């Protein structure tokens, strides 16, 4: 079976609806057809200088959300990035294959470093996409399910795979992005031209998976729409309404065209009420399942320890081949 790998950063107490629709639901579906490996990328989270105790807590919470959403440890490898030392080791080798200008062109780096200023911008933020390439190539990954915002980083992973293979002989497959167009970019409810984001989102524009249902309903009710009344999917002219239709359709399974018909002549208020119901209905069992996992931290840690062991076995093989190919002397 082809291999799928993906990860998310433990940079918030809760994942948001963009993470869930753009990535996590795809991860769960791909378990049926792929050899799946999913990771909480805590080393990446160090780029935002988190409080140590908070980072530890969020790492567990993120893993609990993967499990609650349906990542099944019996079928997938689920682990924490820092538990497998080979990620950082392969990242060094790949960093030595990455051009400075190539890394400096990454738009996420440009955006985040512009916000943080020269003093606040670390080398870790700069080399973030190189570590991401290491995560992916270490498992000889074929498919990487991500949202649209990660497309450029994935392109770099592909370039590095090709470069390594052409310089040192075939070592890793060139990974493909798995980006599902309809849900590739969920927008901020309060600013529907920006993506829903853990770090940049306006407080009112983001729906966290673990939010209280009342908060979710309130945020959807106050979602920014346009001054018209027609419920129509038109991301250019009606980004707010189109975002609500996307969310409804993805969670309810109802095609967007059918929703347009259903809400014809009924105005935005009705749409918002129904979207709130659909979101609360989808997230309530998920929130309860997360609470279940967090109530048994030993069981959660056991799942992660077993996952790390399985991941390490694969990672060790790839890193050994790469070290050998680039000419590092075996330890004997
Ligand atoms: N708004 C979104 N719509 C669809 N998919 C999205 N993803 C993120 N936002 C949306 C996808 O979720 C995964 C999260 O990866 P990450 O933890 O590395 O975070 P990120 O891509 O930087 O996005 P976040 O979670 O919103 O954080 P910040 O605030 O740092 O931008 C990825 O697959 C991503 O594509």
Description:
- With 332 residues, the chain is mainly alpha-helical.
- The strands form two sheets. It has a three-stranded parallel sheet. It has a two-stranded parallel ribbon with strand order 4-5.
- Helix 3 packs across helix 12, helix 4 runs parallel beside helix 13 and helix 9 packs antiparallel against helix 12.
- The radius of gyration is 21 Å and the shape is globular.
- The two termini are 34 Å apart.
- The mean pLDDT is 96.
- It binds adenosine-5'-tetraphosphate.
Rg (CA only): 21 Å
N-end to C-end Cα span: 34 Å
Would you count the extended β strands for me? 5
**Which small-molecule species are bound to the chains here?**
adenosine-5'-tetraphosphate
Major β-sheet, in short? 3 strands, parallel
Q: What general form does the structure show?
A: globular
Average pLDDT rating: 96
Order of helices and strands: EHEHHEHHHHEHEHHHHH
Q: What topology, given as strand order, has the largest sheet? A: 1-2-3
How much strand?
5-15%
The percentage helix is 55-70%
* SS-derived structural category: mainly alpha
Pfam families: tRNA-synt_1b
Enzyme class: ligase
GO biological process, one term: tryptophanyl-tRNA aminoacylation
GO molecular function: ATP binding; tryptophan-tRNA ligase activity
Produce the secondary structure layout.
Elements: E1 3-8, H1 17-30, E2 35-40, H2 42-45, H3 52-69, E3 76-80, H4 86-95, H5 100-104, H6 107-120, H7 123-138, E4 143-145, H8 151-168, E5 176-178, H9 213-221, H10 239-252, H11 256-262, H12 267-294, H13 297-326
Parallel strand pairs: 1-2, 2-3, 4-5
Helix pairs in contact: 3-12, 4-7, 4-13, 7-8, 9-12, 10-12
The structure holds adenosine-5'-tetraphosphate.
Pfam families: tRNA-synt_1b
EC number: 6.1.1.2
Organism: Beutenbergia cavernae (strain ATCC BAA-8 / DSM 12333 / CCUG 43141 / JCM 11478 / NBRC 16432 / NCIMB 13614 / HKI 0122)
């Amino acid at each position: 079976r082809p291999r799928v790998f993906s990860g998310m950063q433990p940079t918030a107490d809760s994942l948001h609806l963009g993470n869930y629709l753009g990535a996590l639901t795809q991860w769960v579906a791909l378990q049926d057809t792929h050899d799946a490996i999913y990771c909480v990328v805590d080393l990446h989270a160090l780029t935002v200088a988190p409080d140590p105790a908070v980072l530890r807590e969020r790492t567990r919470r993120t893993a609990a959300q993967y499990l609650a959403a349906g990542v099944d440890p019996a079928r997938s490898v689920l682990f924490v990035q820092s538990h497998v030392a080979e990620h950082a080791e392969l990242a060094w080798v790949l960093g030595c294959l990455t051009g400075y200008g190539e890394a400096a062109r990454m738009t996420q780096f440009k955006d985040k470093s512009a916000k943080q200023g020269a003093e606040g911008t670390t080398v870790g933020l700069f080399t973030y996409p190189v570590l991401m390439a290491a995560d992916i190539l270490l498992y000889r990954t074929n498919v990487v399910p991500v949202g649209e915002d990660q497309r450029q980083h994935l392109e770099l992973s592909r370039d590095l795979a090709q470069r390594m293979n052409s310089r040192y002989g075939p070592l890793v497959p060139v990974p493909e992005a798995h980006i599902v167009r309809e849900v590739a970019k969920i927008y901020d409810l309060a600013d529907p031209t920006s993506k829903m984001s853990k770090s940049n989102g306006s407080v009112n524009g983001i729906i966290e998976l673990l939010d209280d249902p009342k908060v979710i309903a309130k945020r959807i009710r106050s979602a920014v729409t346009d001054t018209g009344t027609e419920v129509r999917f038109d991301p250019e002219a009606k980004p707010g309404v189109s975002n609500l239709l996307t969310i409804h359709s993805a969670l309810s399974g109802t095609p967007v065209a059918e929703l347009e018909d259903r809400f014809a002549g009924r105005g935005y208020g009705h749409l918002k009420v129904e979207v709130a119901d659909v979101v609360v209905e989808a997230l309530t069992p998920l929130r309860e399942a997360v609470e279940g996992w967090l109530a048994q931290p030993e069981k959660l840690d056991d799942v992660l320890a077993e996952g790390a062991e399985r991941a390490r076995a694969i990672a060790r093989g790839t890193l050994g081949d790469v070290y050998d190919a680039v000419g590092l002397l075996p330890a004997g």
